[in-house]
Amino acid sequence: MAARRVGMSARLLLCAQRSQVLRPTHRLLSCPGTVAADVKREEQSSRSVETGSEGRIPKKKFSELQKERREQAQRTVLIHCPNKISEKKFLKYLSQHGPISNHFFYESFGLYAVVEFCQKESVTSLQNITRTPSMDTEAAIPFKSRFFNLKMKNPSSQTSEQSCIQCSNHSPPSSKKLSELLCYAESIDDQLNTLLKEFQLTEEDIKLRYLTCSLIEDIAAAYFLDCTVRPFGSSVNSFGKLGCDLDMFLDLDEIGKLNTNKTSGNFLMEFQVKNVPSERVATQKILSVIGECLDHFGPGCVGVQKILNARCPLVRFSHQASGFQCDLTTNNRIALKSSELLYIYGALDSRVRAMVFSIRCWARAHSLTSSIPGSWITNFSLTMMVIFFLQRRSPPILPTLDYLKTLADAEDKCIIEGHNCTFIRDLNRIKPSGNTETLESLLKEFFEYFGNFAFNKNSINIRQGREQNKPESSPLHIQNPFETSLNISKNVSQSQLQKFVDLARESAWILSQEDKDRPSPSSNQPWGLAALLLPSVVNSVSLAKKKRKKPASERIKNLLESIKSSSPENDTNTNGKRTVSTQA
Predict the structure, then answer these.
(1) According to the UniProt entry, which residue ranges have a biased composition of type Polar residues (predicted)?
(2) Closest CA to 326 of 297, 353, 292, 300
(3) Parallel, antiparallel, or unpaired: how do β-strands 246-251 and 324-329 relate?
(4) How far apart are the C-alpha atoms of 290 and 306, rounded to whole Å?
């Protein structure tokens, strides 16, 4: 216990001097009935409910929200603007082509504006008056898109009329700012909700993600008319944080199926197509062509990599204008269903997202997760662990996937590549939980639960919501919710799992001490969640052991050097002192 108290004091460093924290102001104009207006209403309602699912309002299906966002993106344009510009004149100029629903500015390799028109015809009108730039020493590839470059005819005449452009923030808060915000919170519940609000995707960021997908869709449609590029993963499942990658799915299934119900008579017309040996070969050929097109003709697409031999072939690139790192796939339909399932879980109870964001932040602070592939625990695995934990509460906060399947009707039925991906899609038909536990209690119980979990023999299964015997010897086994024979955490090593367990136990102990000696509001000490994000004693001890234990090659080298130093042949320096040779 004494050692633990020393560890605790080591982690309770002083907070940064408390000062007024200024939050960035975002410009977002919305028309009644638009997605932006709906999101504003949802945000206002969520502020009145801190925990649980009290005061529920009807929520849209995942597919309905996706459809609205896509339609919104299709009447939106991206414009690279001069750094000095009159916002009033800019909007007046664009309004010639039709009424503007909303707009915002942001910075990424220059100043950009995202402008949403109320009608799609306004975009066509703007495209019709836009010209291809003329180059002195280079040749421009004429590509008609919704990504424009604005120039002023007489820059000097507009200098005196420039207005201050307020740019939207697309970056998560710094560690210092986050520490200040958490130290000012009134409770641990407030800390978790504050972290969620600071890291979650903003309305503007979400709009920009759908717009980026829509711009890529325009390029792909040159080859595959009526194709759709859909965002999936963290961009749409409600668990994405500011700065996360943008995963895209090139959906070709709707091509040629639009008019199947309109055929009549004794004949059936089919397209003439080329055949390839397998679905995987088709995917590789399609992505290869799209990758070449993005590389040579896609405005703002840089660093294009075609990773076609991966388990799930993809094209990776940077969209310079939006600042997103993008992965484009075309045979990953199960990932879309996973995104929808997580969206449903995140929408069922306001505590779910707060818990997931906080656990992910805690894991990132202690290097349990990494953006580099390796033996680390992934964010997806952590999310599954939180969902599983909330299913195990009494009463459960979240239903099991099997229960969601029993609520499904005929239109919810979904079989993908032989895997049953059926679950209810209407959020309003799922009964809310009667559990009233606080976030503080849940956070502490999460660390205690997994700090003592029998990972050596049990697996995690959100489909049934109960512990099961591990079907394999991997240190950590978390069953894929749809491809049930797969372990989504097969990459995790024993050392990384043990590190997670040690940190979970330490964090549970720290939170238990909060009940006894919580710092006063006037104290400068970090507390609660802020204390959990400080450097860990577990990490410090582990690092010290690594430093003490030298690699075998280094120990052998030092031994040889010591033998040489005791040899009479060794040279002496000008002061008569013996020197040690370090040459091999």
Answers:
(1) 563-584
(2) 300
(3) parallel
(4) 9
Pull the structure tokens for residue 572. Answer: 């002496």
Confidence of residue 369 (pLDDT cuts 50, 70, 90): very high
Distance CA 54, CA 569 (A): 84
**DSSP assigned state of 219:** H
Residue whose structure tokens are 């680390």: 376
Report the greatest alpha carbon distance in the chain: 107
Query: Band of the pLDDT at 56, cuts 50, 70, 90?
Result: low
pTM beyond cutoff 0.70: yes
* Residues forming a β-bridge with 107: 111
Each residue's pLDDT tens digit, 497-539: 999 999 999 999 999 987 666 666 556 678 999 999 998 766 5
Q: Coil, strand, or helix at residue 79? A: strand
Query: How many whole angstroms separate alpha carbon 282 and alpha carbon 312?
Result: 13
Residue pair 406/367 in contact (Cβ under 8 Å)? The answer is no
Q: Residue 37: what pLDDT? A: 46
pLDDT in tens, 125-152: 999 999 888 766 777 777 889 999 998 8
Mean pLDDT along residues 164-182: 85
3-state secondary structure 28-57: CCCCCCCHHHHHHHHHHHHHCCCCCCCCCC
Residue ranges and CATH numbers for the domains of the chain are: 350-396+433-520 (1.10.1410.10), 399-431 (no CATH)
Higher pLDDT: 142 or 362? It is: 362
Distance CA 511, CA 369 (A): 22
| Distance separating alpha carbons of residues 340 and 333, to the nearest angstrom | 11
Name the 3-class secondary structure at 93: helix
